[in-house]
Structure formats: structure tokens, C-alpha cells
From TrEMBL:
Example GO BP: NADPH regeneration
Swiss-Prot/TrEMBL catalytic activity: NAD(+) + NADPH + H(+)(in) = NADH + NADP(+) + H(+)(out)
Protein name per the record: NAD(P) transhydrogenase subunit alpha
Main localization (coarse): membrane
Location of the protein in the cell: Cell inner membrane
Domain Alanine dehydrogenase/pyridine nucleotide transhydrogenase NAD(H)-binding positions: 148-316
Described purpose of this protein according to its UniProt entry: The transhydrogenation between NADH and NADP is coupled to respiration and ATP hydrolysis and functions as a proton pump across the membrane.
First-to-last residue of the parent protein present: 1 to 381 of 524
UniProt entry tagged with the keyword NAD: yes
Species of the source: Paracoccus suum
Length: 381
């Protein structure tokens, strides 16, 4: 089959779905690989590097789309991109199918098979294809780097001849993939790190990374992560009140707050309120990784950096992985080529859309003239 990557059209999107090194792997699966001219330029991969890896470079998006059997992308396709596709082609990309029913219907009507990289089941066997995790890991790391650059003070404590510097205090709210990456990065920079999650089972992970888990004085039932497939469920009003009370107590002490709290399929819970921001010290920084879903902080503005009257910087960027475009592309392109490896079991360049396979079934959101989202629950964990 011919597998090709478009140049992303979204403003500020630096990533690309196929890199020269992932192309080499795709060729070993028996595929021919193509890219649109300039597809990798913002991630630092020149057309010549692609050519040197045996990739054909086509001059336009239209020519590329016409030539391929499998179209690989980072962002969900625009109408124009989808309208160029035809029956029998496969699209593999981020889709966010739950909030994109029109896109699913349009792809179905065109006879396109759509594979949503954000629907890869979170089971052990599929970790190598888990783009949500690979991108969240980068976002967590980059959030700390942005915080440090805007903080303008040391993260690590120092005792020098010129004076004593206390370590920065960092609070990470939400210890999923992004939160754990942020905790690891902040502790390695020498900060004193605190972290909170509604899933009590992460306390051990947080503590093993050298951070302190923030415990709530709460007698009611805590969240039961196991009942929700490892994801958080919405908190009870009593739990939420306790959580906010704790955050209110911590706000004046923290230099950096990194929020990553999300509940699948819902807007981000509002956990860092305006009065908490007002209680923070001037020079403190909040990085809100939930900005795209409305933000965990009440004052976050998506895609912007704002400074409040009391001198707190609030960063609501939604493009953290793209800010590390080369590496984000390598990891995302690896996720895609691993998926294609499962779709090409005989390594003969022939796609086998095996809908009995949990991972393929879970990620396939349109196929054979049907919308196949939502998928049935996976059989194997
Ligand atoms: P996510 O992005 O959906 O949410 C981020 C974090 O926010 C979660 O840890 C969640 O518990 C937390 N959160 C939600 N509401 C909160 C609140 N009110 N206060 C504080 N924290 C709150 O999560 P994710 O990073 O995608 O990971 C979710 C789960 O999936 C985790 O259990 C993770 O271990 C699991 N996972 C499994 C695999 C696998 O392949 N086995 C891969 C990746 C993730």
C-alpha cells in the first residue's frame, strides 16, 4: 500500500505524522511511503531527508491524497482535506470522535476507513501505539519548562556565598501521564514537588518519584478508579469542597501550579479558582494543561499567556507537544507505524483491517460504510 503524510495546515502545528525514520520502518512492512512537499519542515525534517530515506515527495496536498491508500495526519482533517479523499482509502489521525460526529458522518459517506489515534485502547499491548500518552508525556515535560522560563527564579534550592535560595514549590494537580511527567521534570530540576489526584492509587507512584502526595482529610468514599477503567470519575460535591479547601490552603505557599486534571468526555473540572490565584505570590506561575477543555483554572485563557493584577502568570497554551515538534513527530510517527504494523501482519504491504482485533476495532471509527464509534469494550486488558 501507499502510505503518505500531509503537511499539517493548522496554524502553529509543527508536527508531522511520518518522519524519515518511521518511513524506513513502514517500508519494511512492505509499504511505499510518500509525503507532501514541506510536510516535515516545521519539525526539522527536510524534503531531502525524506528522499534519502526512500520517500517520494509530492508537490501538493491534492497530489499526495490522490496517490495514497493510507493518509496519515496529526490533526483531524479539515473539510477540504477530507473532501479530497475517496472510497477505499484509510485515514489515520487524531479525530476526537465523541465531539466530531459530522466528521465521522462525512468520512462514512465517502467510504473512508478512519482510524482515530486518540481512540487506541489503553491496554498494555497497545502502549506502543498510544499517542495520547506519548503526547501527554511531552506536554507534562514542556509545561515545567514553560513554567521555569516564566518563573525567573531557581527551581533548586542553593546555599551560595552570595546568599541562600529556597527551592521552588511546585504543585501538580492530576497525576495521569502528563502530571507524572511534570512531577518527574520538576523534581529533577530540584523543586519541592507536591501532587494531588482523585485516584488514591497514584499516591505511591507520586511518592516514588520524590514528590509528596497531598492527602485530604475526607471521611467519605474516595474515587474508585478501577470502576472507571483507570480514569477519574466526577467527584462528589463534598469531596470537591474538601479538595478546594486544601488548594486554598496551599495557594499562598506554591510558586508553580501545573494542572492536568481531566475526566474523559467532560469539560475540565474547575479546581483553581480566582480567589486562589489572588492568594498566590507575585511571580508565581500557573500552567493549565487542561486549557483546551476549558481549563482547570478559572482564569485560564486558551492559547494565551496572561499576567494577573497580582503578578501571577497563567499559561493556557494548547500546543505543548508541537513546541517540541521534532521529538513529538518522532514519537507520534512511531505510534502510527506501530499501528500500521498491526494492520500489516504479514509485512507484505497489504492492510488487514481485522475488526476482531481489540486494538484495531477500538480505534476504527468508520469502516465499510458504517460509523463504528463508539466501540464495544475491549475483551483483553
Ligand atoms: P487524563 O488525561 O484523563 O486525566 C489526568 C489526570 O487527572 C488523571 O490522573 C485523573 O485521575 C486526574 N483528575 C481528574 N479529575 C481530577 C480532580 N478533580 N482533581 C485532581 N485530579 C483529577 O488521564 P491520563 O493521563 O490519560 O491517564 C488516565 C489513566 O489511564 C491512568 O490510570 C493511567 O495510568 C491509565 N493509562 C493506562 C495506559 C495503558 O496502556 N495501560 C496508558 C496510559 C494511561
Amino acid at each position: 500500500m501507499k502510505v503518505g503524510a500531509l503537511r499539517e495546515v493548522a496554524e502553529g502545528e509543527a508536527r508531522v505524522a511520518v518522519t524519515p525514520s518511521s518511513a524506513a520502518h513502514l517500508k519494511k512492512l512492505g509499504h511505499e511511503v510518500l509525503v507532501e512537499q514541506g510536510a516535515g519542515s516545521r519539525a526539522g525534517f527536510s524534503d531531502d531527508e525524506y528522499r534519502a530515506a526512500g520517500v517520494e515527495v509530492l508537490p501538493t496536498a491534492a497530489a499526495l491524497t490522490e496517490a495514497v491508500d493510507v493518509l496519515a495526519k496529526v490533526r483531524a482533517p479539515t473539510d477540504a482535506e477530507l473532501n479530497r479523499m475517496h472510497e477505499g482509502q484509510t485515514l489515520i489521525s487524531y479525530i476526537t470522535p465523541a465531539s466530531n460526529p459530522e466528521l465521522l458522518e462525512a468520512a462514512r459517506a465517502r467510504g473512508v476507513t478512519t482510524i482515530a489515534m486518540d481512540m487506541v485502547p489503553r491496554i498494555s499491548r497497545a502502549q506502543k501505539m498510544d499517542a495520547l500518552s506519548s503526547m501527554a508525556n511531552i506536554a507534562g515535560y514542556r509545561a515545567v519548562i514553560e513554567a521555569a522560563a516564566n518563573f525567573g527564579r531557581f527551581f533548586t534550592g542553593q546555599v551560595t556565598a552570595a546568599g541562600k535560595v529556597p527551592p521552588a514549590k511546585v504543585l501538580v494537580v492530576g497525576a495521569g501521564v502528563a502530571g507524572l511527567a511534570a512531577i518527574g521534570t520538576a523534581t529533577s530540576l530540584g523543586a519541592q514537588v507536591y501532587a494531588f489526584d482523585v485516584r488514591p492509587e497514584v499516591a505511591e507512584q507520586i511518592e516514588s518519584m520524590g514528590a509528596s502526595f497531598v492527602y485530604l482529610d475526607f471521611a467519605g468514599a474516595a474515587q474508585d478508579g478501577a470502576a472507571t477503567g483507570g480514569y477519574a470519575a466526577p467527584s462528589s460535591p463534598e469531596f470537591q469542597a474538601k479538595q478546594l479547601e486544601k488548594f486554598r490552603e496551599l495557594a499562598p505557599q506554591m510558586d508553580i501550579v501545573i494542572t492536568t486534571a481531566l475526566i474523559p468526555g467532560r469539560p475540565a473540572p474547575k479546581l483553581w479558582t480566582a480567589d486562589m490565584v489572588a492568594a498566590m505570590k507575585p511571580g508565581s506561575v500557573i500552567v493549565d494543561l487542561a486549557a483546551e477543555r476549558g481549563g482547570n483554572c478559572e482564569l485560564t485563557v486558551a492559547d494565551e499567556k496572561i499576567v494577573t493584577e497580582n503578578g501571577v502568570t497563567i499559561i493556557g497554551y494548547t500546543d505543548f507537544p508541537s513546541r517540541m515538534g521534532a521529538q513529538a513527530s518522532e514519537l507520534y510517527a512511531n505510534n502510527i507505524r506501530h499501528f500500521l504494523s498491526d494492520l500489516t501482519p504479514a509485512k507484505d504491504g497489504v492492510i488487514n483491517q481485522n475488526m476482531d482485533d481489540d486494538v484495531i476495532r477500538g480505534a476504527t471509527v468508520t469502516h465499510a460504510g458504517d460509523v463504528t464509534f463508539p466501540p464495544p469494550p475491549p475483551k483483553v486488558q
